[in-house]
Design a protein that fits this description.
Layout (H helix, E strand, L loop, with lengths): L13 H11 L6 H10 L2 H16 L2 E10 L4 E2 L10 E2 L11 H9 L8 E4 L9 H14 L4 E4 L2 H10 L4 H11 L3 E2 L9 H7 L6 H13 L3 E8 L5 H18 L2 E8 L15 H14 L5 E2 L3 H4 L1 H7 L6 E5 L21 H10 L3 E5 L5 E4 L5 H13 L1
Parallel strand pairs: 1-4, 1-10, 1-11, 2-3, 4-5, 6-7, 7-8, 8-9
Antiparallel strand pairs: 11-12
Helix pairs in contact: 2-10, 2-11, 3-11, 4-5, 5-7, 6-7, 6-9, 9-10, 14-15
Bound molecules: ligand V47 and iron/sulfur cluster (SF4).
Length: 391
């Protein structure tokens, strides 16, 4: 059966050919298979398999959404070595802290613009507690009820709930009642303690991250998952991380999207570590698409990866390139991403997707289709859409 994907005229290692057969037959691959792909799979081999899976699941559909970010603070109690963004609490005068009013003003600055999601994520500031965020969520919802609120990494939630002396479920229920609808995927990094203890020892551990997402799924909320790759981890740690996510997803079906995050090395304690090559980035996307058979979507976060590389990833398993966002997100430009001012308007995103010969679909947070842009021409986009978004 593998012949259809990988012609038998090519001389491929028998074990790799067996993995190709599984993918062709829609059988789940094992951890050993994933290790084999990481160790021996060429970019063209894993790319062919991943693209097959991507097209079987989504055809050419490629999703984006119109969102904006609020980063309440970059002051953080924790000291993750890869982080270029946070200012430790002791140096909090060098960081920023937004008041409720300042955050509401950001929301209001999008009044009349066709955004569907706000993504709230930041450092862990001891003064920004559960009550503070409950009030923020209620005020955002009162002002703009239709805006989907995706907010708070498991790291922020773990701290908030412990400080409020609430269980995970009690804390999540309070936030949900106030308007929180889904969780972003941040804070996952690498679950395996061998690595986690070296790169982010003081924040919630892998089991704690998974427990928060499990509880959210049980309350009917959806979430995303990330993996920070390309630093000190080995392939086996990436596979271990993805296995834990796949196992949880088998139970809850609450994850929407997996987002591999490439480690960027500017201005952090791990700056001595060279960044991964583009080939390794594409192999990571492809292997995650093949391994995570129960995750509906794989996302390339273009502000981090760069827009041309994100465009390329659409041929290596990726079917989502996040949103049209503005420069309120600082975490990536501060970590050395080539995207120093990460904003792309709808016309640019649609063009980027069309250049890769895919179909651009604007989605809501939960992948409800808002608009199919396949047949909208660029001139029409320039004239209509962006006038509304960019004014
Ligand atoms: O958890 C921090 C990462 C994450 C660096 O769910 C770094 O839709 C690379 O998870 N190099 C937070 N990465 C952001 C995040 C996210 C982003 C976009 C969309 C979604 C979503 C989630 O940023 C952190 C950490 O893994 N990060 N520093 C760095 N130097
Ligand atoms: Fe704080 Fe998040 Fe940076 Fe870690 S990655 S130091 S938790 S802001």
């Amino acid at each position: 059966m593998a012949d259809v994907l990988i012609p038998s005229s090519l001389s491929i290692d028998a074990d790799l050919a067996a993995v190709a057969s599984k993918v062709q037959n829609q059988e789940r691959i094992t951890d050993e298979d994933a290790m084999l792909l990481f160790e021996k799979g060429s970019l063209s081999f894993v790319g062919t398999l991943a693209n097959h899976v991507r097209e079987r699941m989504h055809g050419d559909h490629t999703y984006f959404n119109r969102n904006f970010h609020i980063e309440p603070t970059n002051v953080c109690l924790y000291s993750c070595h890869f982080c270029s963004y946070s200012r430790v609490y002791a140096h909090r005068d060098e960081g920023w802290e937004l008041s409720l009013q300042q955050m509401l003003d950001i929301v209001k600055s999008y009044d009349g613009k066709p955004v569907t999601e706000v993504h709230i994520v930041g450092g862990v500031h001891p003064k920004m507690n559960l009550e503070f965020f409950v009030e923020l969520l209620e005020k955002i919802k009162a002002h703009r009820p239709d805006l989907h609120i995706k907010g708070f990494t498991a790291v922020e939630l773990d701290y908030m709930f412990r400080k409020a002396k609430l269980s995970i479920t009690e804390g999540l229920q309070k936030l949900k009642d106030a308007g929180l609808q889904s969780l972003p995927g941040g804070g996952a990094e690498i679950f395996h303690p061998e690595v986690r203890e070296q790169i982010c020892a003081d924040k919630v551990d892998g089991a704690g991250w998974l427990a928060i997402h499990e509880a959210a799924h049980k309350l009917g909320m959806h979430s995303n998952a990330t993996l920070l790759y390309g630093h000190i981890e080995k392939f086996e740690h990436r596979v271990d991380h993805m296995r834990k996510l796949r196992d949880l997803q088998d139970q809850t079906k609450g994850f929407n999207t997996f987002i591999p995050l490439k480690f960027r090395n500017k201005d952090n304690d791990m700056s001595h570590i060279a960044e991964t090559s583009l080939v390794e980035d594409m192999r990571m996307y492809a292997i995650s698409r093949i391994y995570l058979d129960n995750f509906p979507h794989i996302k390339a976060y273009w502000p981090m990866l760069g827009r041309q590389n994100a465009q390329l990833s659409l041929s290596f398993g990726v079917n989502d390139i996040d949103g049209t966002i503005d420069d309120t997100t600082k975490i990536y430009s501060m970590a050395g991403s080539e995207e120093q001012s990460p904003s792309m308007n709808t016309a640019q995103l649609v063009t980027l997707i069309k250049q890769a010969r895919r179909k651009p679909i604007e989605r809501g947070t939960l992948y409800n289709v808002i608009r199919d842009y396949s047949d909208v021409n660029e001139q029409e986009l320039d004239e209509n859409q962006d006038a509304a978004l960019l004014n």
